[in-house]
Amino acid sequence: MRTATTDTYRTSLRITKTASEKMRGFGISERSFFIADQAFTVFIERYPSGPDGSLSVALIFGRGETDRLAENGLDQLTVLHCVFKNHQLLVTNVTLRKAYQALGTNWQRKESIIFTDSRDPAPVAFINMINRMTPAKERSDYVKKRISSWEGYLKIQEQGMDIPDIKTAYSSLAFSHDFSRITLTGCRLKDEEWKTLRNLSVRLTGIDGDVGTVIKTKNRTVEVELNSYIIKQLREKGHALSKKEVVFSNFAALSQIRRLRQGFTNLEKGLAVNPQLDRLLFEEKPEVAPLKELEKLTYQNRLNEFQQQAVSGAMAAEDLYVIQGPPGTGKTTVISEICLQNAKKGLRTLVASQSNLAVDNALGRLLANKDIRILRVGRTESIEEEGKKFIEENVGQYWKDNTLKEISAQYEARTKRQAELTEELETTERMYAELQPVFEDLKNAVANKKEALEKQKEIELALSKERHKFQAFTLQKEQALQEQRDSEQKLETLASSIKTDQAIVESDRNLDWFREEQNRVEKVLQQLEHARQLEQLEKQLADKKQELAAVSDKRNQLTGLIDAKKKALEELEDIKKVDGLIRLMSEQKIEETTAIAYSFGKLEMLRNKMLERTNLEKSNASLMAAIAYIEKLLAPTGVALETVREKALAQGGSFTLAEVDQFLDKLRAFLKSSPSIEPAALGKALAGLYKRQNELWRRGAELKTHDVYIEGSKRAFQELKKVISGELVKQQQHYAELDGKWLEELEKMQQDLNVLERQAKPLPIDFAVPADIEDAIRMRNAELAALERDKASFEQAEERLENRQKERVQETEALSAIQVHLGEINTVLAQVQERMAGFENEREAVEKIIASEPEAEYERTAKKLASLSFDMESLKQEQKNLPLMQTIQKKWLELLKDANDHDLDEIRKLYIKHANVIGTTCVASARKDFIDNYPVFDVVIIDEVSKATPPELLLPMLKGKKIILVGDHHQLPPLLGNDTLEETLEEMIKDNSGFEEKRELEKLLEESLFERLYKNLPETNKTMLAIQYRMHENIMETISPFYQFDNDQLQCGLSDSDKERDHFLESGSVKRSNHLMWFDLPNEPAYFEERMNGGKSLYNPAELQEISRLLVELNDAAGEAKRAGRIDVDELKTVGVISFYGEQVKRLQRMIDQELRLPHLTIRTGTVDRFQGSEMEIILLSMVRNNQNRHGDIGFANDYRRLNVALSRAKQLLVLIGSSEMFTKRAKKEDTKRMYQHVLETVEKKNGLKVLQKG
């Protein structure tokens, strides 16, 4: 139900004539709606909008409000059916509803309304509130549509439910070895009744309650699996029953189905405590409320990081939280912690599960906590022994016994305490007095040290300043000394340089001498340069004259070429054939341009057309002759030639000349070889001739006459000559242009020659030209360069000498200033060193005080003194309160010891009233007494969700404001009866080939409710418990891939797997280091599976034999371990022997019962599906499937969830018995092969593979 607002709405109410008449008929006064401005508490239910879009609602008045309206009590609820018309609330009809019908559903809204008889419009806020409501029918239809997908579970369970009770006598009753089953023989039943017994409950006359369930009928015997709570009673009375009569009934199953269907109905009606439950269950991505802020939690249990995350997330969630718990990850610990946290917050929690055992396991960890008041609800006989203390009739006695025991212990302890108190108080006071002066001395020492620390800081600060000053002046001194050394070295360098420069300046050479020498050398150089140029000019003159002659020769050649082109043009006019043109082009080196190529191509085309015309005419003549001949042969036969011709022409065809000639050749050969030819063959030949003649005519029609092609060839030839003539003219023009360019070049060269002749003047007569002018020039240039260098050196020496003499005077003055500054620095450094020495002496004295370290002793003494003071006060208070506490507890003891049945009943009522953790099964939560007593829970926790069907899960979910689901979708879906869901489906389809809901039921296997929620909920509303504590890490490695795509990888929480999961067994096959093994059977006929006679299940005799041998070996190893002291003498090793197939399990149990004696082992057998939720120290897994059938497969073992369950039951040792080849190579699905290959590879890596030899 929607939460009502705190406001009261005031709205006008108008009533139609029809509604008014109805009210009068029911005895309801219209005026009663408007009396004294009194508000009505009304439940509003919105209807779908009308065809005109009008807003439609129902106003439902409860019993109390209806009494206000009606003059006489109606014992029913009044319903006003209304619409909003012109913004006014108009009553169109009035009906009555049964008083027991639900009020306050999630589709309704409870509001307070004052009605007026005015014509004012309804308040906008009131209309908007109704507009925001979802129409009840739409919401109900939404639930009904989606919940239909869960109908499949109920359809499975309803199979055969219409069977009436069957009563019959029996002759004898026999127990199984472990008293878990009985076999009834001598039942007198009809044939059709024998077929319906399976899964019916069984009642024996003389035994209270149902004794169990039929699991098998064979050879006129009935095998019954007993309820655990009935075994003791049946063992005592079973063989002494006065009347041997049995009743087979499905009443219990029918009751359960009714409860499940009622859950559907309640959800459809909106009767869930959480109004959003339907959305949370059915939306693809449920919209959960944001997590609330939490204070940091204090955990009662030791939790790992993932468990803490799960608990904190579950506490912070407002509506839904999902916890995925892989095998052995501590789901029960997390559930108990959530219950404790809820109890601390004053919340009531429902813990539910599919089975009683799971409920009691979940509650088991809560027993020792005082904040928890557990109440276990359900059939007493179904509840485990540990849980029976908390059923309603036992909780009073349980509380009394526990409280009496605790108070008795406290009372006895306080009686002894009186004498001890006085002595303890005197001792404590004496120790306090002795410790007080020691504390004062330590206190002063700490204060002195504190002052010394402050003084030390001051000294360190002053020392630091002086050190910085000392370092600064030391640095200045080093810099001054370096400057002094640099200055002295510089003065030495200057003196040496001045001496060198003076020697240069005072030599015989001066500036005038250098100028005269330079003039002389430069004059000689000019004459040498002129002599060198004369040689070069004469060479250039000779070269230039030679170039003039070459250019003149080229011009003469060009003149010849130009004349040749003239002659070629004249010759071109007389050429009449294409070959002549080709020859001319070759001689004149004319390249084939695009225009020339086009003209040649055109001539070639015309020539080909003429040739084609000739060939066509020739072939046509041959065809006409053949046609005439054939027509002549056919004339006497009466064949209609025109018809043959028309059909042939209608067919058409495309033929080359070669194909036509080939056809004619074949026809001639045919005619010659056959003296007598059938008319049909001749007609066919004639048709072929007609078709080919028609094709030749078609192609001939596309060609022109010979004259046209000849005329075209002439025109094309003339165009070609014109193009070639143009190319010759272009060549002629090109040569003329070249001649003009060379003429210009010749004139320019003549001008250059004239200039060279003018430049070649003769040398003076008196100049002697050396033999090697170049060498002479190099020598004079070198001499001139040397003079330049010497002159520059002289000038530089003069300038340097003047500058360095000035610099020496300045440097001498600077050196004197540096020496004065050094003296000042030394004086300051001496003063600083003196002050630093004083501070060092002070610091040494302070450090002696600081080194004393009195704080730790002072702290210890202060704590001891405070502890003694607290002890004194506590002892005084205890001494004062002891008589009062003893009196109170004595009174409690008397009351508890003397408590009568009435007192216990009152205690029981109080306990039940304040119980904060209620435990029950999912189905039991729908019992009427449970619904009446516990309609609402703050939190509903459902454990082992994967083992329950959605209809079962829905029942406790309807009760919770917040739902917490705990499960693992990587484990198996629920069992239905004794079979897996797959087996049940297979049996149903086999029994009824027309079963139409097969696909609908198969969908139930694909994705569970838990899996969908876990995948689609936001990360804030789910957690995976990723640390497991059950298995040895080697075993865990086999199941890790099943969780690799979840949020976190599965981890092992055992600090030392080998130590914590040591099985202590040593045998020929199994070593202590082995924790994961595979006994590998050959894929050979001797080891193949077999099918039970007339049944669907399989078994494997070879595996039975190997398991028998292995169990004997393990039993002997356990006995040896006891003798060696590795395990206790009384300890029995727990061994689970499991299989994928029920028939194999039955034969295993029979073998263990009848053939083996295993005193050191506790053995439990079962299918993998039945073992889900259980754990044993050792697990032997019989894999059964082994064949070489090409179309075969591994059946139920394909399901990774089943393999996950099988591999994760063992704590210390897991042994697989089966053919690795069958599972890793012969399985049909690649994913399945990879799954078993991983297991095999892990076994091999852990040195656990044992390959069994053939025979």
Automatic annotation (TrEMBL):
It comes from Planococcus salinus. Residues 303-486, 777-975 form the DNA2/NAM7 helicase helicase domain. Residues 404-575, 739-878 form a coiled coil. This is ATP-dependent helicase. InterPro entries: DNA2/NAM7-like, DNA2/NAM7-like_C, DNA2/NAM7_AAA_11, P-loop_NTPase, SF1_C_Upf1. Residues 1005-1220 form the DNA2/NAM7 helicase-like C-terminal domain. GO terms for molecular function: helicase activity. Gene3D superfamilies: 2.40.30.270, P-loop containing nucleotide triphosphate hydrolases. The keyword Nucleotide-binding applies. Keywords: ATP-binding, Coiled coil, Helicase, Hydrolase, Nucleotide-binding.
